Amino acid sequence: MAELKIITMRDIVTEQVQFLWKPYIPCGKIVIIQGDPGGGKTTMALAVASALTTGGELPGGGGNASPANIIFQTAEDGLADTIKPRLEQLGADCDRIHVIDESEQSLTFSDERIEQAIVEKNAAMFILDPAQAYFGGADMHSARGVRPLMKQLGEVAERTGCAIVIIGHLNKKGGQSQYRGLGSIDIYAAARSVLTIGKIEVDENMRAMVHGKSNLAPCGASLSFGLDPVGGFCWLGEYDITIDQLLDPKKKEGKNAKPASQLETAKLFIMAALSGSDVPANAIIQDGEKIGLSRPTLKRAKSELGVTSAKRGDEWFWTRESAQGDQEAQEETMIRNRQILPDADISTNQKSPWV
Q1: pLDDT tens digits, residue range 308-330?
Q2: In CA terms, which of 36, 99, 109, 165 is 20 to 30 Å from 287?
Q3: How many CA atoms lie within 13 A of 166 on its CB side?
Q4: Domain count of the chain?
Q5: Which pTM does this prediction carry?
């Protein structure tokens, strides 16, 4: 029989919760990033990791003031042909991103090497991608198989102060968000923060991140980001969407839905369009009108974003770079004088970086 030991709360020293990225990623806790395959979960996690390695800022003003070390384990993507190129494109300090060699023995949630590596590299974040690859022989769908592993992993996070981020796929069941993750509900229960990634309707290459669970602080704002095949990953700002709307687009039509305003949608659309390169003014307005954004709304969004106009040859472009003077009147006249067909394909003018 184990010796009885009593802890009195009077003797506990109160500590404040620390965050790597407030309020999304608390230090010393388990965090889940979940979404459908190909939805951008890994890329977003790498974007956060990259910012942390350089002391860069994250949306909402979060992020480490000083560069941090990261450990990234993946069972899905090649390190040489996928992960490192993404990190380089994201501007990561690759000297600060490490991987446990699994060539001789696969890693599991209960593996002692996790804590050893965290301590040796003084890692601020440990990413495991995807969750189902690291349960070993345990049944991830049963409480008996999951609870001991999640408890052990949580204790490692607590002892080391390292945020342990688990990336997982969603199941196809539908229903409440806590039941959409793969495996037992105990995986979701063990996490102190859960971030869900999904596609949004503004553009096929745009995604939203919704903070669906947060035990240590109020949930953070939902954020949008783009996966530009040319320009790469880019944060696009806050996006008004709930976890239920993200997981079930039909709920956006309900009486309680709170879709983004036309102005905010226009801002996201413009930021997405200009993330890779400048775009012809005529093309961006045509594209915006195709998804229901009026010319006046686009012009107002352009103004509020500080996007400027630049004439190159005979054509006007919208650019996020500063330009001399304001050429709005001339640009408007030029656009109105163009023949704009309702079913025109703007790709004939310039291929969108979001295709």
Answers
A1: 888 888 888 898 765 334 444 44
A2: 36
A3: 30
A4: 2
A5: 0.74
